[in-house]
Amino acid sequence: MGAGKDGRPVRDNYMKRSFPIEKLKNISSVKNDLTVLRHMWFGSKKGDDHAARLESFYGPQAAAYDAFRARFLWGRKPMLAACAARLANRSNMIWVDLGGGTGENVDMMAKYIDLSRFKAIYVVDLCHSLCEVAKRKAKAKGWKNVHVVEADACTFAPPECMATLVTFSYSLTMIPPFHSVIDQAVSYLAADGLVGVADFYVSGKYDLPMRQMTWSRRFFWRSIFDIDNIDIGPERRAYLEQKLERVWEQNSQGSIPYVPWLRAPYYVWIGRRPTVGHALHEERVERPPMFPPTFLYTQSWEDPEPDMEVMEINRNDTVLTLTSGGCNALNLLVEGAGQVVSVDCNPAQSALLELKKVAIQQLEFEDVWQMFGEGVHPRIDELYEKKLAPFLSQTSHNFWARRLWYFQHGLYYQGGMGKLCWVLQCLAVVLGLGKTVRRLANAPTLDEQRRIWDSNFIIHFVKNGPKLLVWLFVKFVSLVLFNKAVLWFGGGVPGKQYALIKADGIPIEHYIARTMDGVAENSHVRKQNYFYYNCLTGKFLRDNCPTYLRETGFAALKDGLVENLTVSTNFFMEELKARTYTKVILMDHVDWLDLHVAQLLAETLARQVAPGGIVIWRSASLRPPYADLIQKAGFDVRCIRRADEGYMDRVNMYSSFYMARRKGSKKE
Question: Are the beta carbons of 579 and 318 closer than 8 angstroms?
Fold first, then answer.
């Protein structure tokens, strides 16, 4: 950049010089892309053997190969990231990249793991032109441990006679004798080695739910790829799963350069040598009708302290609980439960808890705190790509891949209840109560909190104003904020639960006023009530947060306890039937059910809860009608607390809290 007579930089000449260069680069890029497309669609694929056919197809486009494929082969990065994440603590490894082409996979892998951890990397390909590009790349990058081998993948074996990692990056579909190449790869795979595959695919006619395609998509894509001698049928993955144990997979689709609307299906698959008793499956349960497209709750809305007082949690327990925000499921493990099964029919709630579980397993405490304590993480994209996505199920990955912005805008302002909290905060600011909300959230003592609450002009007016004006005001607020739509999509209160509240003769506005006033007068938000502190501020505090976000709780979970958590997307009744439990937490689930379904649930509890086992639940009703059904099914039922007797707990959102013990001794 030059300078003018006044000494200031002259930008105009610089821009005039650089613009044509950038323009030429763009023109050159498009020209290279068109070269690749021309050979893909119209190129020659002639030759006496497979090597000759590969050369005739890839030779003319070898120089432009990498740039185009970077915008087409979407499965490469997640496959390499998933492999790297599972090999992060190893060294002196051997990596064989079969059909490695130009060596671009090695360059990409450097983003996820230090290449010096590999004793040797073998890039194996049958195409001479692609191998030449790979050799030039290895020399330019200074890769001393990378060896480019022009050979048939079906016969190649590393000199060390073993490999820690074997990868097929969009190459398995182009190797006609796929049985041979898979058999050969397995023959030198180390006992603790991994096989990573990324490729295009179509499902079988009858396949796993996460892979299943319609007949039209199967026919269309298989026909299109067959033009280039690429066989994307389900047979290759089926043979992989016959020879190896599936550890993890994702199925997705990606855009194609210069081809609008169409998205090509691809999969990522990680496997290892079979182990005894392994089973990996993923059920896809659709949301019930009218269910929101995301989660309702970002945290659990049942106070775990009263639960622990009556549940007698111990290492012999197998506990079934509703997922909600997942905090209480993790708390059960910290409190000593042997196994915890957390179930929800909303896949978004499962995705939230699964992300918390994987984050605990893969991240350090400070990263987990930023994600779920602050609700914001400045490096969420990097963490997700390298450490979280490689371990998430396909359903959870599909959910979070489109919603990482939650951790940029604030996790606790997302979802049904998060949005409601955000709207109420905005309303408070509009009414001039923004500072009051902050003072209430950070009151140093309970007495000061009470003073702030009672002196607020709205609360003072409702408690002491003229009855007619108060009645009109309360009815207006109820109509706007406490109608059935807001209560369902914002607070997770369905119609049946709303009817239970009305059956007790309590107007909904009085019910909510009782909840809020009880908390403000009896529970110190800043020091002990993380539920409402989060609502008022959009975050937790290190000394006022769920158990899994405290350093001691996190350490216990990371040390192995979190492995005892099963996250299931399923209907509660189906999961209840799956095994015998010693403890069951119904939360307020039965409030949502018709009485004949509640009767069936009571009978199922009687069969699936071990003698002496404990069932607990909360209800929006002072006397839930299904309590008698559970008692008649063979339980000793008692009410622990009721709202008409005073303050319930830190949430204070329910009218009653019940415990039932299965009759019969544990020895029976």
Answer: yes
